[in-house]
Amino acid sequence: MPHVAIVSGAAGALGSEVARTLSHKGCALVLVDVAHHAEGLERLAASLVNATWAAGDAAGPDVWAHAIESAERAFGEGPSQAALIAGTWRGGKPLHEQTSDATLRLLLAANVESAYGGLRALLPGMVARRRGSVIVVGSRVVERPLNGAGAAEYAATKAAVVTLAQAVAAEVLPHGVRVNAVLPSTLDTPANRAAMPNADASRWVSLASAAHVIAFLLSDEAHDVSGAAVPIYGRA
Q1: Domain residues of the chain, as ranges?
Q2: Is 3.40.50.720 the CATH classification of the domain at 4-230?
Q3: Cβ-proximal residues to 73 (8 Å cutoff; 6+ apart), any chain
C-alpha cells in the first residue's frame, strides 16, 4: 500500500526537497507551511504527483486537523509517514547579552511546539492503524552543545525536539510506529550561502543527501530503526 506522507515546513529549502524525494518514491503528499507561503505550497503541490496542501502554523492544532482531513479526503486514508521539518534558527548574541525572551519564545514555537503539535495530532491515528513513521529535525549542536555558543536558545530547543522524539519513540514502538530524529550540520541552502558567502559550501550537507536520509528513515526499509538521532554532518 502506498504511503501517505505529511511534510511540514514544505515551502522551505529542506522541506521542499524532502517532498520531491518522497513523491519520487511514490508517496501521496500533504504539504504544510505557514499561510504566507501558501502560494509556494500550491506551486509545489502542482508540480508533484498526488499532492495537496494545507496552510497554517505548525505550532497550532488547526493546521494539523486540516492536513489530516485533507489526506483522508484526497487519498482515502490518514498519513502513515510524517517529516516534521518546520523550524527556524536565531542566534548571534550570548545569553547574558539578551534583553528579552523574544528569541526563546520564537524558537520554542517554531522548533518545539511545531514538532509537539505534529506528533500529538498524527500519532493517535498511526497507533490505531499500527502503522507509521515520523522524523523530526534536530541539529548537530544537540551532540555538540559547545558549538551552540551565541545561540543557546536554538541549541536548547533543538535538544528538546530530539529528546521529545526519543521519549515518544519508546511509547509508540509497541504499536508499530517509529519516531526518529536527524541531526544536520550546515545545510547547503541559498539562505546559508547568502549569510556565509566566504564559507566553503562544498563541506556542507546537500539538500538531496539530507532528504534521502529522511526518506530512508521514513521508509519500511528502516523498520528496525526507532529512537535514533542520526548525524548528517557532511564535512562541516
Answers
A1: 4-230
A2: yes
A3: none
